[in-house]
Write a structure and sequence with these properties.
By secondary structure, this protein is an alpha/beta fold. It folds into 3 domains: about 180 residues, NAD(P)-binding Rossmann-like Domain (Rossmann fold, 3-Layer(aba) Sandwich); about 160 residues, Dihydrodipicolinate Reductase, domain 2 (2-Layer Sandwich); about 80 residues, ACT domain (Alpha-Beta Plaits, 2-Layer Sandwich), CATH 3.30.70. About 35% of the residues lie in helices and about 25% in strands. Strands 7, 8, 9, 10, 11, 12, 13, 14, 15 and 16 form a 10-stranded mixed β-sheet that branches. Strands 3-2-1-4-5-6 form a 6-stranded parallel β-sheet, sandwiched between helices. A hairpin with a 2-residue loop joins β11 and β12. α1 crosses α12, α4 packs parallel to α5 and α7 crosses α8.
Length: about 450
């Protein structure tokens, strides 16, 4: 058995450099825990770096590095869904295990990549793809393996959480906080993936597949951003005992009610949650995932969701797992060398491929949540009665009503909280409310969840 494991790191941005620094800083600890020397033999980079150890080969040909005989594990941190996919597939074809932080690639092409890895008897590890340094993938695939997961909810984008925290704590408007997030490096120059929920949807697709044993289905995640959230709504929510967070939900529905369909809800959207809820008190750029499972109950996993240190930590946790896989493979009989190695490693989506479920993903109109509604109306008799009648006729139960002072002469905002209802019923009710002559603007709706 060779005493060294050879790594190639493809991409020397923030994360790739962070991995190199972590290995250099913790070299003895890594060897003590794995029993092996972990050596970076090659790096894939478009330009030569003078600050890299001269013993490490620098190569601009990423495909060559991915297939190198001097490499056991390929760490892909270049990002994107085109070149990264080609490189990973090439590495797999050449018998290399892969570690990636690429949530977009896996959410969109993971079914194909994992099947190809199974075919070539190698593993693709991806702890760093979701929630940075929080070991949520390992927890769900291993620690909760005996539990039935009913639902999960997560703050899985640090940029969105930073924006919502600043709006609430400092009373700053969305555009102002977004600008600061870009200056601090929390948000990209084009922040669309963060503020529109696409980044969170990529991560949610991965978490849901592990939780429910379903194929990756990113294209079926309902996605709503935070660009329309106003300070007005943030303040009203606080007054009612709630906070607004940008959350991802994966929920198992068993179709127990007359209007409830069976299937899986996958949704990312702003959400009112109780002020004393665990997730309500995760602030700044932190990430957190709340998992409700049976028989364990609710458990919360919280920490840094991005950054060089957090992501490098997750990458190296995967590397360490693969080092042990390689060790067990080296010590196995040659007659078993071509057999699938699941005995030493958890399947990619926690379920063996033959056991993945075909449970349907529910459409947006089938989702069930509570609602916060902000309705602007003329201050005249009977307005509130008309609104409540429409909601009642639609089978929607009201939990609280708050009427605020007029913002414009003769016009008042009315805030309504509802109990959970099927989305299609709420759609019809809002359509009728907006047709009332006394309503002066579109109804603002934000979903509400008690996380119970």
């Amino acid at each position: 058995m060779s005493n060294s494991i050879k790594l190639a790191i493809l991409g020397l941005g923030t994360v790739g450099t962070g991995v190199i620094n972590l290995i250099n800083d913790n070299l003895n600890e890594l060897k003590r825990r794995s029993g092996r020397d972990i050596i970076i033999t090659e790096v894939g980079t478009r330009r030569h770096r003078d600050d890299i150890d001269p013993n490490i080969m620098q190569n601009s040909d990423l495909m060559a590095t991915a297939a190198s005989d001097n490499v056991d594990i390929v760490v892909e941190v270049i990002g994107g869904t085109t070149l990264a996919k080609d490189v990973i597939m090439h590495a797999i074809k050449n018998g290399k295990h892969v570690v990636t932080a690429n949530k977009a690639l896996l959410a969109e092409h993971g079914n194909e990549i994992f099947a190809f890895a199974e075919e070539h008897n190698v593993h693709v590890a991806y702890e760093a793809a979701v929630a940075g340094g929080i070991p949520i993938i390992k927890v769900m695939r291993e620690a909760l393996a005996a539990n039935k997961i009913d639902w999960l909810a997560g703050i899985i984008n640090g940029t969105g959480n930073f924006i919502m925290t600043e709006m609430r704590d400092k009373g700053r408007p969305f555009a102002d906080v977004l600008s600061e997030a870009q200056e601090l490096g929390y948000a990209e120059a084009d922040p669309t993936f963060d503020v529109e929920g696409i980044d969170a949807a990529h991560k949610l697709a991965l978490l849901a597949s592990i939780a429910f044993g379903i194929p990756l289905q990113f294209d079926k995640v309902y996605c709503e951003g935070i660009t329309g959230i106003t300070l007005q709504d943030v303040n009203y929510a606080e007054e009612l005992g709630y906070r607004i967070k940008h959350l991802g939900f994966a929920v198992r529905r068993d179709g127990q009610g007359n209007d409830e369909a069976s299937g899986i809800e996958l949704r990312v959207h702003p959400t009112l949650i109780p002020q004393d809820a665990l997730l309500a008190n995760v602030n700044g750029v932190k990430n957190a995932v709340l998992v409700n499972s049976h028989p364990l109950g609710q458990t919360l996993y919280c920490g840094d969701g991005a950054g060089a240190g957090a992501t490098a930590s997750a990458v190296m946790a995967d590397v360490m797992d693969l080092v042990r896989v390689l060790g067990s493979k080296d010590s196995s009989d040659e007659s078993n060398s071509n057999q699938n190695n699941h005995g030493h490693h958890v399947p990619h989506l926690a379920f063996i491929p033959e056991q993945l479920s075909d449970t349907p993903i529910l459409r947006a109109e089938q989702m069930i949540t509570g609602y916060y509604l902000r309705v602007h109306a003329y201050d005249s008799p009977g307005v509130l009665a008309d609104i409540t009648r429409i909601l009642s006729d639609a089978g929607i139960n009201i939990d609280a009503i708050l009427q605020k002072p007029a913002h414009k002469v003769g016009q008042v905002p009315v805030i309504i909280l509802t109990l959970p209802v099927v989305e299609s019923q709420m759609n019809l009710a809002i359509e009728k409310i907006e047709k009332l002559d006394t309503i002066t603007d579109k109804v603002v709706r934000i979903r509400l969840d008690e996380l119970a």
